[in-house]
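tool_call: predict_structure(chain=1)
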Amino acid sequence: MSSASDTMGDRLRPLLPAGLIEKKMFGGLGFMLGGNMAIGTTAKGELLVRIDPGKQAEALAMPGAYQMHMGARPMTGFIAVAAGGTPDDAALSRWIAYALSYAKTLPPK
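tool_result:
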């Protein structure tokens, strides 16, 4: 894990609801709801957001959002958010709510 990932994790933790499980993953952190990743950090310290794949265009239109890739392959159901999309706690809280609204629809693992 990187210090940039740790910094974003430190911003996320106080804003997250109780009951999410924190795990190291993808070179960053993942916060799990019912065994499903809802939100996390990238190794570069950006936000990693779980999205409804059917609403990808909507999510990518939001400030700072871009398609997340694992190597050369796009990650279906995930986007990343550059620092410009998370300037303050209010913006970060909106992303958390967006991610959790979809993660809550997934069956527990």
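agent: The mean pLDDT is 94. Proceeding to next step.
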